């Protein structure tokens, strides 16, 4: 299966070793790299500015011999492109009418699709381009004849693929991307999703970081993919140095970057997610509003239609490189999309999560005028995180920790170790801790209901479970009335997504919930990080470590004869997969088949995800294709079926961009929708 079947397009930037003023040699290097990138499944291959002659050619660019040589080099590239369905963008000087233009030429399969002249010619400091070139605005024609073909000519060309939905290419030339309103901005507003910049950019200290920020913010502002490919080794060192910097960015993220200062040719490539760009643009109504403001200009953009064709027929060995063999995804998909990946910014990101939670609770306490909270402490993950956040909040507000009224409430299935941990946490954190036995009130309710358990039968059904969750919540709310506090909710985002909580009179309800935007994988990560800060006493830390290591369990059903405790993940599936599914479903609106594909690429035995050592997690699990599809089916059914629990959820702060299921925050959905279209789409993979 090809990446192209899942809304991706593979794009490449090629940085050849240049020979100044030797178009034939440059054509050979270009052809070699073009063939390699095409055979690798790239639909787009971008070369540097004036790559066929070299950027640092100065006055030689006006020599007829050189200009003839460039045309011959272009002819060689066009000829060599026959049978190649990739679009190839090369840079060369071209005479059109009376002017000499610095151009990017788009070529596909022996055809020139169009010629884009540079709009903004730098003429400051080391640059002298206005000495040689005419700018795009000086052109008096909008077509030109190149190598006997009449082709569109101008900075307003959108190369639109008829058979790859969402692939619309725009080309510009170096300085065009450094001005306040690059030509690619109206192009993007007019529909271009892939913006390529052919560059000749000498390196000076600090430019590397500047280029990264320029390219990445341009891709973010335009909600597009951006390829920037600068000239490298072989450019003239008369007065300057060249680092061959090439970057592929997508909506603010860096997908690939060349090795700078390499002395050999190189190709960088990455798979751009066209679905993601479409989804983001579709949602960003302000972007469409701006397109509307500029509609007269945008309507005049010229759309040059072409087809990639045969992209699922050819194989690597084929003389006609198709794209079918691009089967393993060339981009990094984080296994834990909610968890900061990499260790570099881990402290900052985790601290930020904590700040948001603390800020939410502090503001709510201030606005209610109350100075106490009531919380049920189970000795499990969620209530532990909420308790730590509460402690931090009270410290910051200058309120005594004893105003945190913590209750551990053992039920029919509470394990001794869990109960002990709850006590350790409450004692060592200095909050007001108490133990409340909910069994008598649960027994009373089960008897009132006529439940078989009250007659001594071992019937552990959902009523049996929810009676306990309900009695706990009922106690907490009445304690809050009694003591003048608010009930702090603990349920996390993953539980809300799966409906794994007891509705109404149950853990679904609280006065304010600091965890409602924190998925389970992030709850685990936050606790792990908090341990690493060394903030807590050794006894507290030991309890936190045990909590992280224990099986995740609601402890509502007593252990079986084998002593095994009720495991949440045995019933609903692995949280690490569900968090992955949740992120891709709600953040990007991905089809189930794409979510499964991404999960298989990321969590499969031969994973393309980040190397484990760059992700600050301890799990090292992998899942086969069938397991992923099975749990995705479970997720979709539960996600759709449990919307009613989210529609009525309490207030709580939104923490991550893909992390809110509040109907007031970021997720509005009917409580009675069918899951069929998602399940059918998933089954269509089989
Ligand atoms: N669309 C809809 N709109 C309005 N109401 C709807 C509805 N669909 C079902 N309902 C009603 O809601 C009821 C189902 O919801 P609910 O009463 O919550 O019950 P339910 O979701 O069946 O059970 C709660 C589940 O959460 C688990 N749990 C509870 C507490 C803590 C934890 C934990 O580990 O964190 C896990 C527990 O093990 C159990 O499996 C249905 O019986 C029906 O009456
Ligand atoms: N034995 C208990 N004592 C006090 N409160 C409890 C107890 N069991 C559950 N609760 C309350 O109900 C909430 C939901 O229970 P649940 O089992 O989902 O949470 P948890 O144990 O904190 O975390 P996790 O589900 O991640 O193990 C808890 O966070 C806690 O506030
Ligand atoms: N070739 C160009 O247009 C180079 C200009 C650009 N500002 C740079 O310094 O990289």
UniProtKB/TrEMBL annotation:
It catalyses: deamido-NAD(+) + L-glutamine + ATP + H2O = L-glutamate + AMP + diphosphate + NAD(+) + H(+). CDD domains: GAT_Gln-NAD-synth (cd07570), NAD_synthase (cd00553). Its EC number is 6.3.5.1. PROSITE patterns: CN_HYDROLASE (PS50263). ATP binds at residues 376-383, 490. Residues 647-672 are annotated as: Disordered. GO terms for molecular function: ATP binding; glutaminase activity; NAD+ synthase (glutamine-hydrolyzing) activity; NAD+ synthase activity. Keywords: ATP-binding, Ligase, NAD, Nucleotide-binding. Deamido-NAD(+) binds at residues 466, 495, 500-503, 645. The active site is at 49 (proton acceptor), 118 (for glutaminase activity), 174 (nucleophile). Pathway: Cofactor biosynthesis; NAD(+) biosynthesis; NAD(+) from deamido-NAD(+) (L-Gln route): step 1/1. GO terms for biological process: NAD+ biosynthetic process. GO terms for cellular component: cytoplasm. It comes from the Bacteria. The keyword DNA damage does not apply. Residues 9-274 form the CN hydrolase domain. The keyword NADP does not apply. InterPro entries: C-N_Hydrolase, C-N_Hydrolase_sf, Gln-dep_NAD_synthase, NAD+_synth_C, NAD/GMP_synthase, NAD_synthase, Rossmann-like_a/b/a_fold. L-glutamine binds at residues 124, 201, 207. Catalyzes the ATP-dependent amidation of deamido-NAD to form NAD. Uses L-glutamine as a nitrogen source. In the C-terminal section; belongs to the NAD synthetase family. This is Glutamine-dependent NAD(+) synthetase.
């Amino acid at each position: 299966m090809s990446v192209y079947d899942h809304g991706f397009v593979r794009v490449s930037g090629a940085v050849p070793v240049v020979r100044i003023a030797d178009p034939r040699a440059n054509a050979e290097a270009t052809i070699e790299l073009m063939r390699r990138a095409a055979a690798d499944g790239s639909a787009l291959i971008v070369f540097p500015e004036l790559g066929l002659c070299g950027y640092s050619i100065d006055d030689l660019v006006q020599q007829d011999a050189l200009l003839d040589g460039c045309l011959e080099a272009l002819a060689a590239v066009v000829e060599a492109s026959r049978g190649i369905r990739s679009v190839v963008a090369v840079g060369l000087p071209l005479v059109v009418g009376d002017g000499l233009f610095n151009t990017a030429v788009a070529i596909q399969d022996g055809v020139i699709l169009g010629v884009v002249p540079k709009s903004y010619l730098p003429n400051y400091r080391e640059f002298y381009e206005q000495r040689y070139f005419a700018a795009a605005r000086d052109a008096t024609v909008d077509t030109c004849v190149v190598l006997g073909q009449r082709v569109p000519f101008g900075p307003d060309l959108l190369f639109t693929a008829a058979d790859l939905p969402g692939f619309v290419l725009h080309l510009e030339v170096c300085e065009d991307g450094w001005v306040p309103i690059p030509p690619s901005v109206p192009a993007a507003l007019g529909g271009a999703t892939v913006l390529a910049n052919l560059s000749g950019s000498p390196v000076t200290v600090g430019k590397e970081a500047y280029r990264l920020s320029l390219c990445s913010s341009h891709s973010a502002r335009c909600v597009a993919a951006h390829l920037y490919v600068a000239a490298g080794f072989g450019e003239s060192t008369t007065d300057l140095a060249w680092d061959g910097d090439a970057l592929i960015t997508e909506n603010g993220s860096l997908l690939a970057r060349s090795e700078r200062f390499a002395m050999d040719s190189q190709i960088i490539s990455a798979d751009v997610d066209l679905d993601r760009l479409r989804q983001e643009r579709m949602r960003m109504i302000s972007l469409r509003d701006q397109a509307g403001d500029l509609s007269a200009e945008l309507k005049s953009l010229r759309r040059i239609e072409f087809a990639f064709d045969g992209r699922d027929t050819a194989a690597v060995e084929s003389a006609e490189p198709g794209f079918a063999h691009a089967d393993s995804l060339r981009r990094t998909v984080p296994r834990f999309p909610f968890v900061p990946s990499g260790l570099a910014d881990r402290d900052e990101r985790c601290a930020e999560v904590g700040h948001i939670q603390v800020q939410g609770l502090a503001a709510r306490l201030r606005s209610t005028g109350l100075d106490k909270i009531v919380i049920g402490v189970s000795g499990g993950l969620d209530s532990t995180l909420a308790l730590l956040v509460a402690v931090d909040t009270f410290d910051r507000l200058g309120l005594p920790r004893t105003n945190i009224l913590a209750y551990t409430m053992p039920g029919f299935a509470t394990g001794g170790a869990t109960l002990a941990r709850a006590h350790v946490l409450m004692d060592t954190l200095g909050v007001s801790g108490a133990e409340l036995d909910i069994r008598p009130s649960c027994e009373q309710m089960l008897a009132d209901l006529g439940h078989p358990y009250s007659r001594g039968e071992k019937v552990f059904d959902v009523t049996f479970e929810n009676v306990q969750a309900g009695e706990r919540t009922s106690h907490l709310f009445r304690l809050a009335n009694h003591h003048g506090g608010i009930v702090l909710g603990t349920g996390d985002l993953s539980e809300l997504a799966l409906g794994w909580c007891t509705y109404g009179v149950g853990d679904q309800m609280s006065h304010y919930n600091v965890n409602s935007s924190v998925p389970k994988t992030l709850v685990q990560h936050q606790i792990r990080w908090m341990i690493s800060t060394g903030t807590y006493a050794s006894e507290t830390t030991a309890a936190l470590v045990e909590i992280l290591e224990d099986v995740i369990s609601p402890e509502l059903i007593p252990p079986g004869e084998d002593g095994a405790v009720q495991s949440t993940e045995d019933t609903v599936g692995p949280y690490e997969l569900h968090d992955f599914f949740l992120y891709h479903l709600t953040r990007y609106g991905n089809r189930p088949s794409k979510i499964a594909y991404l999960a298989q690429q990321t969590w499969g035995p031969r994973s393309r995800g980040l190397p484990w050592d760059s992700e600050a997690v301890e799990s090292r699990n992998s899942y086969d294709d069938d397991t992923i599809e099975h749990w995705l089916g479970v997720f979709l059914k539960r996600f759709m079926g449990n919307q009613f629990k989210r529609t009525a959820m309490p207030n709580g702060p939104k923490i991550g961009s893909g992390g809110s299921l509040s109907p007031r925050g970021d997720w509005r959905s009917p409580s009675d929708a069918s899951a069929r279209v998602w399940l059918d789409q998933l089954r269509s993979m089989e």
